Amino acid sequence: MAQTSVQTSQFCTFYLDKLLFGVELKGVQEVIRSLDMTKVPLAPAVVSGLINLRGQIVTAVDLRRRLELEPRPPGMLAMNVVVRSEDGAVSLLVDEIGDVVEVEEDSFELPPETLRGSVRTMIRGVHKLNDRLMHVLDIEKACQMTDVVETAAKGR
Amino acid sequence: MSDSDIVQDFLVESYENLDRLDRELVGLEKNPHDRDALASVFRTIHTIKGTCGFLGFNKLEKVAHVGENLLTRLRDGQLTLNPELTTALLGMVDAVRQMLKEIQSTGHDGEVDYPELRETLTRLQQAGVSVVMQAESPAPQEVLLPLPTPEKEIAAAVSEAVALPATAALEKPAGKKRPKPVKLQPAEGIISGPARADEPPISRQEEVLGSQQVLDSRSRDKAAETIRVGVNVLDKLMTLVGELVLARNQLLQISNAVEDASLQAVSQRMNLIATELQEEVMKTRMQPIGNIWSQFPRTVRDVALGCGKEVGIEMEGKETELDKTIIEAIKDPLTHLVRNSVDHGIELPEVRLKAGKERSGRLILRAFHEGGQVNIEISDDGAGLSQDRLRKKAIERAVITAEQAARMTEREIFNLIFLPGFSTAEKVTNVSGRGVGMDVVKTNVEKIGGTVDLQSTFGQGTTVRVKIPLTLAIIPALVVTCGGDRYAIPQVSLLELVRLESDKVAKGIELVHGAPVYRLRGRLLPLVYLSRELKLAADANRASEENDGAVNIVVLQADERQFGLVVDQINDTEEIVVKPLRKQLKSVKTFAGSSIMGDGKVALILDVLGLAQRASVVTETRERVLTEKTTEAAADAAEKQTFLLFAGPGDSRMAIPLSTLARLEEFPVTQVEMSGSQWVTQYRGQILPLIRLSVVMEERRHRLRALQAPPSPNSGPIQVLVLNHEGRSFGLVVEQILDIVEDRADVKSAATRPSVLYSVVIGNRVTELLDIPAILRSSDASAAPPAVAIKSAEVGN
């Protein structure tokens, strides 16, 4: 409901497997370098682990896995984009942080019909920037992952 | 402040007010002429009505309005409260509550406007009007108006403001001085002045006061100094304080290394402040148990009325404080127990009279702190439980066999009613038997680390005792390492630790068709490998190399079943702050939460029951477990006891029942300090008095000299049994801890020296069983000042 009423909106951008993604800036709590992470055995694969964010325990979600992209090459340190979801803060692990961009409403377009599967629910659409496309990530959908949790539970 | 904020505030305020209304109405029924209480009830409803009008909840306003009209009659003494009126008014409270819920979920006050209820209320009110005050004039018209006009609104508010001073001034019977708007208008100038100056608007105070009594003017003053704070703010504070403590620890380490006097002074001060801050913040989460008890008078009244009984409820220790999360968790189990007591425990008035009891039954709720736990007792003076009946029913339901039943102790028989499918069976009424049996009560209490116990005397009554920890936010836990990560195991499920050295591993761990077991004191203990359960298998080999092939077994209890959890390393026990897992991880049943360790890293808290289920340790139903237990009991008819064996002075063999033992500790001599002539040590933030068995056992004439000897600096670490006796902790220094054995201990002979209860044959050898109270007495007599005084002095610092 954000960019419908305002002319422009600001996005925090980041890269995943060379694709440019953006989340609404007001949904972002902070961006931090990689932190010590405690892995959670038996958890769905998209959950990388738990981090201590100044006394708050935050779940780290591997966004590459979540969006069904190639796994992150070994040795590549992820950055944490901490976003506020309904269920508290969640850290999204991304490859690299981009700029904050300001986009106008009319550069937005829904994803093409050919984009299928569960990924489609998480990508609201794209903003056509000058040189490339910015995928708009739906924070709630990306953090919810009831679908993943269920399949993981069944698999066991 | 936005609209939704106002509505939110209105809801919170109204819920609290309604809870108080329940209580006050029930109180009024017993004492219908309590004018203050009536005035307070009236004000509450009036406030709700007024706010509804303002916010546009018309249906709710209508219902509140008819209630208010009826209350006006009552307050003015034209009607006297009777059960019928009370029921109608309580019905109105329920209706209002229902509508508030509706508002909370949908934002408006629903479709129902309770015509029958309003009809009843109006009828009752008019009945009163016609009987009591036929001749009196303008009021009836006024009350029959469907909705109040603004003018009337003001008039009512004015009459409300003067109601208290007016009643105070006039000593005459109530019926004659009904405040009428006409009469009051001129008085306004005189009376409302002081009323405003003395007391801030009444509804404001009530809101702040929450569940406490409103009518005491002193408590009003106190109430003015409290403010409402959201729980999320407190939680956040708690988190930050936790972090502050971590930062402080790091700072302390640095300042110790740097050796800068000014830095050390600052860090010491910071240390003190952080500790104090932590304690205070912990306190903010505590709530008196009275908050949930306050609804019980209403519950009891409704249940008692429903089954034609008379029950009075008494409460002791309302102010006993508990962590908010626990308060919420025990609310339902307690409600169930209270209902049960009234429904099944207390007899009908005629039956009671026949049994020589008073017509009206007594239900007593008692809460008190004991040994870091909160005890809650629910006792009734009803019929009690019949052992024979329970036995018969248990056999009928094939829970136990007749043979087992004959061997069970009284306590075991009574506790049968906590088994699933057993509790509400006697006769299902609409009150009990709502699917929440006693087994659910037990499960829920155990979930938060508590215990339930039931005692009963046939014909005289039943007492249910619930013991629960003070807080869930911070729990003692054992920290273990597995696959390079740390895991915390809540201490409530922990039974003991066993370490198998590498040369004993091959012999100690046996296989039952591939399933590993360990013989723990002659019984097979199923073993669960944490690394395998958590699929950390890759690291398992490395871990066992680190341990030189030794195996660490953590013996745990899950749902009446024991199992051994094999971990790489056992670290230490720690008090940990529990943080719940987020939704993304809720499906992982193996973990109960997470916590931040001293070094700032996150560790997961194991859910012992979940882990046991995953490892299929707990698959059988409870009945099966019980059968097995009673079979065991049948095998050795006499009750077996578990003893801790240790060497006393002069190579004597001594024992204490394991149940009296809190922990086993080993202290280096350097940690022992002298306080007067008493050995003490600092232990878990307390000063633990150490009583030396060698001194206690010394003959009297040598005792003083032996007592005053400071510990010899060259001796090895001392072995200490930490015991709790009647709320005090102390350490008993023994020569050597030998073993834990289970034995019948039925060959006894009288003691040969003081501080010994009797001699007994344990494990085929004569062993002296210590008399702990006697040891404490003799130690108190010889050591001055007594241990308790030392402890309290320390707390004072």
Which secondary structure elements does this structure contain, and how are they paired or packed?
The complex is a heterodimer of chains A (156) and B (797).
Chain A: E1 8-16, E2 19-24, E3 28-32, E4 47-53, E5 56-62, H1 63-66, E6 79-85, E7 88-94, E8 96-104, E9 108-109, H2 117-122, E10 123-128, E11 133-137, H3 139-144, H4 146-155
Parallel strand pairs in A: 2-11, 5-7
Antiparallel strand pairs in A: 1-2, 1-8, 3-6, 4-5, 6-7, 9-10, 10-11
Chain B: H1 3-30, H2 35-55, H3 58-75, H4 83-106, H5 115-132, H6 139-144, H7 150-169, H8 181-198, H9 202-209, H10 217-223, H11 231-258, H12 261-284, E1 286-288, H13 290-293, H14 296-306, E2 311-316, E3 321-323, H15 324-345, H16 349-354, E4 361-370, E5 373-380, H17 387-396, H18 402-407, H19 410-414, H20 438-447, E6 451-457, E7 461-469, E8 474-482, E9 485-490, E10 494-500, H21 502-508, E11 509-512, E12 515-520, E13 523-529, H22 530-533, H23 540-546, E14 551-558, E15 561-567, E16 569-577, E17 591-596, E18 602-606, H24 608-614, H25 622-635, E19 641-647, E20 653-657, E21 661-667, E22 672-675, E23 678-683, E24 686-692, H26 693-697, H27 700-708, E25 718-725, E26 728-734, E27 736-743, E28 748-750, E29 756-762, E30 765-770, H28 772-782, H29 787-796
Helix pairs in contact in B: 1-2, 1-4, 1-14, 2-3, 2-7, 3-4, 3-5, 4-5, 7-8, 11-12, 14-15, 15-20
Please give a structural write-up.
Chain A is of the alpha+beta class. Chain A has a single domain (8-148), classed as CheA-289, Domain 4 (OB fold (Dihydrolipoamide Acetyltransferase, E2P)), CATH 2.40.50. Chain A has four helices and eleven strands. Chain A has helices at residues 63-66, 117-122, 139-144, 146-155, and strands at 8-16, 19-24, 28-32, 47-53, 56-62, 79-85, 88-94, 96-104, 108-109, 123-128, 133-137. Chain A has a six-stranded mixed β-sheet with strand order 8-1-2-11-10-9. In chain A, strand 1 (8-16) and strand 2 form a beta hairpin. Chain A is globular, with a radius of gyration of 15 Å. Chain B is of the alpha+beta class and 797 residues long. Chain B has five domains: 3-223, HPT domain (Four Helix Bundle (Hemerythrin (Met), subunit A)), CATH 1.20.120.160; 231-284; 288-469, Histidine kinase-like ATPase, C-terminal domain (Heat Shock Protein 90); 474-635, Roll (SH3 type barrels); 641-796, Beta Barrel (OB fold (Dihydrolipoamide Acetyltransferase, E2P)), CATH 2.40.50. Helix content of chain B is 46%, strand content 24%. Chain B has 29 helices and 30 strands. In chain B, the strands form six sheets. Chain B has a six-stranded mixed β-sheet with strand order 10-14-15-13-12-11. In chain B, strand 4 and strand 5 form a beta hairpin. In chain B, helix 7 (150-169) crosses helix 8. The two termini of chain B are 45 Å apart. Mean pLDDT of chain B is 73; it is low at 129-222, 423-435, 620-638 and 782-797. Classes of the chains: A alpha+beta (156), B alpha+beta (797). Chain A binds chain B through residues 36-44, 47, 49-52, 54-57, 59, 61, 87-88, 90, 143-145, 149-150, 152-153, and chain B through 239-240, 242-243, 246, 483, 485, 534-536, 579, 582-588, 590-591, 594, 596, 600-604.
